[in-house]
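User: Some background: our group keeps a shared notebook of sequences we're curious about, and every so often someone picks one and asks for a predicted structure to add to the entry. Today it's my turn. The entry only has the sequence so far, pasted here. Could you supply the structure so I can complete it?
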Amino acid sequence: MIDNKKLFEDISYRFDDLGLLKDALTHTNNSKKKNLKFQRLEFLGDRILGLAIADILFRKFVNESEGDLTRRMHTLVNEETLAKIAKEINIGEHIILSYNEEKAGGRNKNTILADTLEAIIAAIYLDKGYTFVFEFVSQHWDKYVLEETTPPIDPKTKLQEWCQSKGFNLPLYNQVEKSGPDHSPEFIIKVVINAEFEIEGLGLTKKQAERKAASNALLSEYVLNYEK
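Assistant: Of course. Here's the predicted structure to add to the notebook entry:
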């Protein structure tokens, strides 16, 4: 059962429509797949979060280019950032999970936390409108917006730029393995550089594994010592 009072305190928002709130927290309605209502809210929340973050960045960084704003945005809406914020506001305590997800530690998994936060954002939008979403995002993302004094570059972009600077083709990412149950998969992705160096990364999503592979490549002796 959802402790509405505790949740409202944790997220600094009070829902009028408790049905929307329950839909946003019900990650699964059986052991095999996400709840359809949750999926739809997650879809909508992803887009609304993007709008709110773009709005915030446009207002705060008035002298930055589209490319700089885009790099900031990618960092602020990625799974890692969403999961950090979800943990800070205790979303994991309130998620409704299947037995299998609960047993597998779903309350602490970045993918589930990030998806649920997106669903909650959509529910806030449907409950009271964009103004309240903007206030919610401004409050909980503020320190992350201000964290980077210069626009950050994610590992995949940084590796791509390094390859281009050396006259190489773009890095190639290939899935090596997918393991685990459908509700909690793990991926191993291999990145290949210049057809002569390869390294793997592990993640709970393909994108996460690709970023990890790129990070591992950037820290590898091949990249660090190239042409030294």
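Suggested note for the entry: The chain has two domains: 4-147, 155-224. The longest helix spans residues 36-60.
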